Amino acid sequence: MTRIWNFSAGPAMLPEAALREAQAELLDWHGAGASVMEMSHRGKHFTEVIRKAEADLRELLSIPENYKVLFLQGGATLQFSAVPMNLLAGRSADYVVTGAWSKKAWQEAARIGKVRLAASTEAKDRPADGFTRFPRAEEMDLDPRAAYLHLCTNETIHGVEAHDESLLPEGAALVSDMSSHILSRPVDVSRYGLIYAGAQKNIGPSGLTLVIAREDLMGHAEVIPRLLDYRVQAENDSMLNTPPAFSVYMAGLVFKWLKKEGGLARMAALSREKSARVYAAIDNSAGFYRNPVENECRSRMNVPFNLPTPELEAEFVRASEAAGFMGLKGHKSVGGIRASLYNAMPVEGVAALVDFMREFAARRG
Fold this sequence. Notes:
By secondary structure, the protein is of the alpha/beta class. It has helices at 16-25, 44-61, 75-87, 100-110, 230-235, 245-261, 263-283, 310-322, 347-364; strands at residues 5-6, 67-72, 92-97, 114-120, 148-152, 154-155, 160-161, 173-177, 194-198, 209-214, 302-305, 325-326, 337-340. The protein folds into two domains: 17-260, Type I PLP-dependent aspartate aminotransferase-like (Major domain) (Aspartate Aminotransferase, domain 2), CATH 3.40.640; 262-364, Aspartate Aminotransferase, domain 1 (Alpha-Beta Complex), CATH 3.90.1150.10. It has a seven-stranded mixed sheet. It has a two-stranded parallel sheet with strand order 1-12. The protein has a two-stranded antiparallel sheet with strand order 6-7.
């Protein structure tokens, strides 16, 4: 068996160690005589799985005791509705739009209640470039009475990331979609009222959504479906209905792997190294490759770039697949190329990609 270099944005590459452990336990989890996929979610075995996963996640992120950890379903996209349903409580909320996903979150929240566009960095005069940066503090029109301020701190499609938490606004409770960079660096959870993330990038397989919510923000929802009510989910230990058991199990194996590898400080160092290599290959290509994002806002997780023509981009994708790379085609909404450098991608895979990029540019530039 030959595993390829998987640069997909999600579902994404998983740590090989976690996959091999799952493979070894697939038919018999810890002597139970059954797979985690076959167990009752209310039985003692799965209870052990989900409690261990939460404990390891709390350790990795240093989650304060007054925050609940929820293992939910529906993807981060369902949280675009669940967040305003739980937190608005008849008030208004502010949204900062820095890419496709925060724009979708704002649009969906507007269907639920009153929301304000506090800032947007969409390049109206350069639609081909889309979003290229995070807004500066003076550009944000914030309501000090807002129920919350919603941000997407890493935009998967456009490759825009907020690196410095100290620059995030004070005041309203911060709600962050961290789907594509959670667990890639230490985070001061206490700065946020609520964090949510789809699992299929740095956490585990698709089917699981992580929500980390401050307790005082729960319990204010008006009449909403019980499955979307954070308070009800917390009271039922994320098991109001059958949870995505295997996805929770795999997430637990990833958390275990992260701890063994040195935790989030180590992941942050590796992310800086890996992304620096790819950006250097782009910036030193004499214009053959181009990334439009402002340097201080360049994502370390998702690196989108373009070649001189769409035809060359299509050729690049075909050649990369033939060379043993996967998932480099850009998102359908923007095209181009995108390399996602999640935690499971080793430095060796990035080095191979950079070598391929240089060879392709030398041959077709």
